């Protein structure tokens, strides 16, 4: 593994179903983030984690939950998917102790909720 | 009002043109200014960053920050078809670990 991996690459999901998007990084970064990217709205932060064992809410957290059991993994769960959660989801990580917060992004997961 | 405003374009230019991409912002606490490049169906990648006001040059790319006007720019000289991508500005505060606030991105196409 080099950098950040996300799975699945894409998914079509029925409304009301539960879904977990996976994210793994091998850079030993302390901070991790989940964004959604929508046309006309750009990248919006869903949840973040500054270190293993802690999480925080971003700009659009409703309907999503996260956990950070260890440094490398940061899964995002949709408990009961709705069509408005159709989007491209990006996971990112950074060493937030560095002089500037360069974030490294995964390849994204394209999610369609029908 | 959004903290960061970016013209979404799309912007289409001929090969060799000079491209100017711009963002304005409202939060005077922003100190780090970044430009990310995102190719189609890929994740964003950091292209350049600057701290506080001033210019920074890297090859054909120049990043410019004017904190007095709350305005940042990215200039691309001698644009190439390989520069075709979406460019996102991003900003953060002084505090270590400050989260990034992104503009919505400008889609650029350089035509050969």
Report the sheet with the most strands of chain B, covering strand number, pairing sense and barrel closure. Answer: 6 strands, mixed
The tally of helices of chain A reads: 0
Number of helices of chain B: 0
Report Rg of chain B: 13 Å
Would you report the number of β strands of chain B? 11
Which spans of chain A have pLDDT < 50 for at least 5 consecutive residues? none
Round the mean pLDDT of chain A to the nearest integer and report it.
94
Strand residues, percent of chain B: over 45%
Percent range of helical residues of chain B: under 10%
SSE topology string of chain A: EEEEEEEEEEE
Globally, the shape of chain A reads globular
Radius of gyration of chain A: 13 Å
- Number of DSSP strand runs of chain A: 11
Instruction: Report the portion of residues of chain A in β strands.
Output: over 45%
Order of helices and strands of chain B: EEEEEEEEEEE
Provide structural commentary.
- Chain A contains no helices and eleven strands.
- Chain A is globular.
- Chain A has 114 residues and is mainly beta.
- The mean pLDDT of chain A is 94.
- Chain B has 112 residues and is an all-beta fold.
- The N and C termini of chain B lie far apart (37 Å).
- Chain B has no helices and eleven strands.
- Chain B is 0% helix and 54% strand.
- At the A-B interface, β5 and β10 of A face β5 of B.
């Amino acid at each position: 593994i080099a950098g950040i991996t996300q799975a699945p690459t894409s998914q079509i999901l029925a409304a009301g179903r539960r879904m977990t998007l996976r994210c793994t990084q091998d850079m030993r970064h302390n901070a991790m983030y989940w964004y959604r990217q929508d046309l006309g709205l750009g990248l919006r932060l869903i949840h973040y984690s500054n270190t293993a064992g802690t999480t925080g809410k971003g700009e659009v957290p409703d309907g999503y939950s996260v956990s950070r059991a260890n440094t490398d993994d940061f899964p995002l769960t949709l408990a009961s998917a709705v069509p408005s959660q159709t989007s491209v989801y990006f996971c990112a990580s950074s060493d937030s102790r560095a002089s500037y917060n360069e974030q490294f992004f995964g390849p994204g997961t394209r999610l369609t909720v029908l | 009002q959004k903290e960061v405003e970016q013209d979404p374009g799309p912007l289409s230019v001929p090969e060799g043109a000079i491209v100017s991409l711009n963002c304005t912002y409202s939060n005077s606490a922003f100190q780090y200014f970044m430009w990310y490049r995102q190719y189609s169906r890929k994740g964003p990648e950091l292209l350049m960053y600057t701290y506080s006001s001033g210019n920074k040059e890297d090859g054909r790319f120049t990043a410019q920050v004017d904190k007095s006007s709350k305005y940042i720019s990215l200039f691309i000289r001698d644009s190439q078809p390989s520069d075709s991508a979406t460019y996102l500005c991003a900003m953060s505060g002084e505090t270590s670990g400050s989260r990034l606030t992104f503009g919505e991105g400008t889609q650029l196409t350089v035509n050969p």
